[in-house]
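Minutes, project check-in
Item: structure for the 449-residue chain
Input as provided by the requester:
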Amino acid sequence: MLSRGLLLVWGVMLVGCSGTTKSVRLHTSDGAPIVLTPRGVDAAPVKLDEDDFVGAVEALARSVRPPTHPQDMARRLFEVPSRSGSYLYEPRGHRIIPLGSGEHLEGEQPAPEVELTRAYLRWCERTNRPGDCLRLLMEHRTVTGDGRYALAMALAQGVVMDELMDAFKEMADPQAMMTAVLWTWTTYMILLAVPEPFSKGVAAVMTASLIAYVGVDTFWGLIVGFRQLVADAEQAATFDELRKAGERYGKVMGRNAARAFVMLATAAIGNTAAGVGATVPGLPGATQAAVHAEAQVGIRLAAVAEVRTVAVSTDIVTIALAPGAVAMAARGTAGGATKAPPTGYRAWGSFSGFKKAMGPAGTHKEWHHVVEQTPGNVKRFGPQSLHNTDNILPLDKALHIDVSAFYSSIRREITGSPLTVRQWLSTQSYAAQRDFGLQAIENIGKGLW
């Protein structure tokens, strides 16, 4: 258990982080570091539709072989040592230090751990997963060490865990796959939060991708919240107290961030840094995440595999890119301020903002959204996934009128539906809408539709 003094110190650390201006420092091989203070962009977590999320996780899981020892797999994936779970505060270095295997803080009693373990097994039974359903007891007889955090994380995201089970229902052992994701998720957070917030390889690519999906501020909130979860989990004497700690963290995280986390954790299992980097741009919400990646992190999401290391301090994320990698951020004025590049991929929070920056579409042309800017699409994908230089194209005015009329018509021979093309298309994923939109422009232009 954590001592009372440690809890007080930890509280000071958390408060100290909350009011600091967050920034990102990029290290490249081209000279001095570029410091990016994210601003001027809506960095709320990318909104992920449940069906898209479940479908993506299901597809990712098809190439994964669930490990028999998920905790050990996660350690090897992120190159972290095993831990016991009891932590001390070392004043001189201001660090949280894990004790060695079998070590305990003075006065710690095993009885609460025994009762907590019994309650955990009863919980597994109640949720129709009898036995050690989260593989928490493979190294210890009781729920201790990292097992407490994994259990709290599972309790924190009950709804998302249900969605995971839905995604894995066709697998031979859905529970094994779910525990692999849970341990990957938990071990990654331990790596970031305790004791040295430094990551490389798969973890570094996952960190840059996570920031792209949730934004810098939410990313920091996840780390600070997890540190509090560690403190609460170590102090918890009962299953109910651990459950409340998990629920508090669940509120900090939110469903969209949790879904993004789960997708990335699933993509990481058994993968390499290059493999994860290649997978991320094809995930749901990647278009909006690409906007965040450039504005908040200064890199292209498609090149996230070029991230070599990530270090997290109280007020800055330091990202080192591979030699030769090009940062999208441009070095700006004194004080480390930066601005987005004037060319290349750009996005705005509104269509009026796009037109103000880009000007007229051209003589006898009009701007056209490939994925339409309907209220439903804005709500599902976010405005920046629609009002950007990849999604808005200049079309001849006559063709634009024909495309708009086509979307308002009922075309059963194409959609197989009694709905208008727009209504039929609105329920589909961003990628599906974009593919159809590009095909519609081509076929209508050729007179085929």
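Outcome recorded: Confidence is low (pLDDT under 50) at residues 1-19, 84-96, 99-109, 330-344.
No further action items on this chain.
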